[in-house]
Specification:
By secondary structure, the protein is an alpha+beta fold. It has helices spanning 25-31, 55-58, 66-72; strands at 3-7, 14-18, 50-53, 82-84, 97-100. It starts with a strand and ends in an 11-residue tail after the last strand.
């Protein structure tokens, strides 16, 4: 099983979890009790599952879609390697993927 490492926003905590190939980062985080909101439940209608991919891992991911890039423009704590966790599908090739949680999120679903 591939492993995913979630790093706290301040970098002081690391949680390595086993991920199921075919699940998304968001699903993996929720299954492991990692604090990622996912307000739209993974249908790419918000940006609350924002994660920052470790630079060394970023090129292992397929490029973001135009729709994902549009939502990323709205995230708090945007970084050059920011992605939406609902759009990263775990594969065996992503073993060791390391993701930092942002300092905060913008919930676009709240008026």
């Amino acid at each position: 099983m591939p492993k995913v490492v979630f790093v706290s926003a301040d970098g002081t905590q690391r949680h390595e979890v086993e991920a199921k190939a075919g699940d998304t980062v968001l699903e993996t985080a929720h299954g492991a009790g990692i604090d990622i909101e996912g307000a739209c439940e993974g249908c790419m209608a918000c940006s609350t599952c924002h994660v920052v991919v470790r630079e060394a891992d970023y090129d292992r991911l397929p490029p973001p879609s135009e729709e994902e890039e549009d939502l990323l423009d709205l995230v708090f704590d945007l970084a050059p390697t920011s992605r939406l966790g609902c759009q990263i599908v775990i594969t065996d090739d992503l073993d060791g993927l390391t993701l930092r949680l942002p300092r905060a999120t913008n919930n676009l679903l709240i008026d």
